[in-house]
């Protein structure tokens, strides 16, 4: 089992990258957020990996942080969730936010993923809620609602969900008031244009 890879980025596609490790190019699938954080061609990077073996294929899925890999592997342990679905879930929000949402029973983050409907989201929450609570994930529902409200406000202003989420991720977690989070995120979005 390949647990991690460290090498030079040779190529970045929309859903994968090719990592050259001692002359061998590994095709590693990753979510959009991870691919955006990875430097361009020629830079050395380390990824935590999950090797997924099927009857007709062997695939690698890469993550910059071990917490992402851990949640990915937890998600694919649920019947009906494959690696692509799990990558989609990880692309919706930061890992800590997803864990808190699951622990709180909030399915709204999960239903944003293509292919995951209300029933599947409820199944994920049902199967993982106790695991998250058992891992000491604190459930702070007002924080989740604040983040969801700020995201919704930015989308209503015409930003894509991904851009809005990225901007909110750059805002300090100490800022909890929705209006202020939106203002700070707008400043980040203004700088990126």
Description of the structure:
- There is one protein chain.
- The protein is α+β, with helices and mostly antiparallel strands and 193 residues long.
- The chain folds into 3 domains: 60 residues, Nucleic acid-binding proteins (OB fold (Dihydrolipoamide Acetyltransferase, E2P)); 68 residues, Orthogonal Bundle (DNA polymerase, domain 1); 52 residues, Orthogonal Bundle (Helicase, Ruva Protein, domain 3), CATH 1.10.8.
- It has 8 helices and 5 strands, in the order E-E-E-H-E-E-H-H-H-H-H-H-H.
- A 5-stranded mixed β-barrel has the order 1-2-3-5-4.
- Strand 4 and strand 5 form a beta hairpin.
- The chain is globular, with a radius of gyration of 17 Å.
- The termini are far apart.
- 28% of the residues are buried.
- The model has no long low-confidence stretch (mean pLDDT 84).
